[in-house]
Fold Aminotransferase class I/classII large domain-containing protein.
Amino acid sequence: MKLSLALSFVVTGASAFVPQQPLTPRSPATSLAAVGVERNPNFAKLIGGYLFPEIGRRRTQYLEENPEMKDRVISLGIGDTTQPIPEYILSGLVGGASKLGTKEGYSGYGNEAGMLDLREKIADKLYKGIIAAEEVFVSDGAKCDIMRLQQMFGAKVISAVQDPSYPVYVDTSVMMGQTGEIDSETNQYKNIVYMPCTSENGFFPDYASMPRADIVYLCSPNNPTGAAATKEQLVEMVKLCKERGSILVFDAAYAPFIRSKDVPKSIFEIEGARDVAIEVNSFSKYAGFTGVRLGWTVIPNNLKFADGTPVRNDFNRVMSTAFNGASNIVQAGGLACLDDDGLKEIDTLIDYYLGNAKILRETMESIGYDVYGGIDAPYVFVKLPESMGGSWDAFQTILEKTQVVTIPGAGFGPGGEGYLRLSAFAPRDSVIEACERLKKALV
Amino acid sequence: MKLSLALSFVVTGASAFVPQQPLTPRSPATSLAAVGVERNPNFAKLIGGYLFPEIGRRRTQYLEENPEMKDRVISLGIGDTTQPIPEYILSGLVGGASKLGTKEGYSGYGNEAGMLDLREKIADKLYKGIIAAEEVFVSDGAKCDIMRLQQMFGAKVISAVQDPSYPVYVDTSVMMGQTGEIDSETNQYKNIVYMPCTSENGFFPDYASMPRADIVYLCSPNNPTGAAATKEQLVEMVKLCKERGSILVFDAAYAPFIRSKDVPKSIFEIEGARDVAIEVNSFSKYAGFTGVRLGWTVIPNNLKFADGTPVRNDFNRVMSTAFNGASNIVQAGGLACLDDDGLKEIDTLIDYYLGNAKILRETMESIGYDVYGGIDAPYVFVKLPESMGGSWDAFQTILEKTQVVTIPGAGFGPGGEGYLRLSAFAPRDSVIEACERLKKALV
């Protein structure tokens, strides 16, 4: 009988893989008696691990087998920012930390929904005249907010997701018990409405032709496809959600990458959205805050459940009971982001990543692939030729041939099969080097 | 028909009450059609708001009616730290922020369960030889971790709580759908095991005489009673949980206040605890990180659900899917806390608050009240004479007579009725001033 599990640990991002030593229990257990608590059956439904740690695991395994390649690996995988935080925004963070050492500047618990200053600034700078400060909930990030939204929605709702999509929508729906088991043939969970998004429909879901759902998750600019929805598309989606009585959860985490006209940066630019939509957003990609952790969610006062309860009230209960506010240091950084100097710095940062996206697009096109996204988004979505096999095979082949880490489209749901996602968040020289290797290996 | 809700906003802690302007929607809605999504019925079961915002609301209301008292209010209410972060620990936070501005020091997404350095340091400094780094999950705080544990446990478990207790255990159980409706007579939710903790049983629950629960929440040193469980009591509790197949969730957030011998600082000092216990912990009270946000949860590899699944695996899934790691800046501060210089600073801080607790104890005793806690804990729990009425009445009377904010015991569950909690986290001069006023008003 094994005394300890010695689980291997996957470190995402750039950190190294460091397996832990098995533990020597203080008093050797005579048996590994399981407690009498049943495992939550919803967790048994989850297949495999969360996508990004799995990418890290495969990268690590490759490096264990090929340690000489360690310095050659370039990540175009997880959408993780790599450029330092610019000066003005940094001064906000440093100042936020420093003042905690003074009697006047010290602060403890704040409002669980965020500092009023920051809520007002988000409302004023990003949603002027559309959203009030009280409708903005500041948090530690969009991913965490999606879980908190699910917590509020509960087990009885039916969710609709774009296929492919950011895995958190589906995984949290499964955890909450909204779904049935996964179908081993389609690789889809029962009780989730999968809305195909392919090159044929411009990667925008045709919700009208799908069964009604209570909650519709829509991400634009999209992760992973890089598609940015037009105003026309969003008008139609809001109209549909209104007609069908659905709540639209709009994930706008990549909004600052939008440079095209007629591509809304917020769902609340669409008339009527205040009656049906929630917007989830984040400073992660705005200002390189992926590790700093700051986001927000907007819930308009208009939005109500069928019994008339404002959705905002229940979300406020989740925030105050199950969350304790984003770090006061980090919120000080958020305030700096939204000053004019901070906004300028953000523009420069985004320009840099958009430049990377352009290089990736042009490279993959020059190889002869069909390429999507990467214009108003940091992700380039590449259609793989059938000769590459499935997208996990292509991921592995590219890793082995070029030491470039990508993300297989299938990792974002069955609809992503046959595609590869490239992230533009790497440093410029790495992007250029990766492109040269890809050209050599794939042409 | 009202067009906007103009919800009033309660700001906890020292911040001011700032009601928001009602919003003017961009396009006046012609109707406030509710969406067709049913409200999660578990949220309808929750009675009232979360406790601490409610305290803030009453304080605010009092000040609106008595604006001349604004500068006289002293809070012995919410357990919110007030002393600046000491120099060495602060340098960890400032350094953690500053280095994000450099190419070499920048970091994005980290492991969702925390930086390996910090996990190792927590294991080494606080659980040496008992707990391995891989069993430590770093987070943004104990409150948030309790919700994530509930997320993992799911809707089907029965929870047992101390009565009175920190409200988050019960509220999150209700949110998860583990409970029935509240009983308007007992003020207890159906399907929760309330374990009375009163002066008669030394505020330690007699779990053996209660129905079996899947999950037993135990907080020591206790919030709100200030009782610190002895080794003997914890040995018995671990034994009972093992016999009954319960998981013990041990909330050790106030452990650094323990100065007495034979009072364990961690449940893992108890033999066999690795088979049955989870420990939730936090830097909030260690180092004044209430606003900074850093905590951790320990899940030993030994702990398994009835089907043999390691509990740690499912918690890792929650952390990686529904959380994105504590802020890298804040984790740098956590590392500093656990250096020798940081640990010394923490001791000095805790001494200061324990000094406050002593003053509060002695004052309330001198008035003639029965007083509990405040020795190995920052909370003093005062038995109210019947002449004061219920604990909410006493709260109100004391606020009006002395402008001292306390917390009524009933806010922590029906078992807290007849008691008042005083927090030792105020500045020393405020504590002394509050005590003088209480003596005058209550003698």
Notes: Chain B touches chain A through 142 residues (CB under 8 Å). The first helix of chain B runs from residue 41 to 45. The first strand of chain B starts at residue 74 and ends at 75.
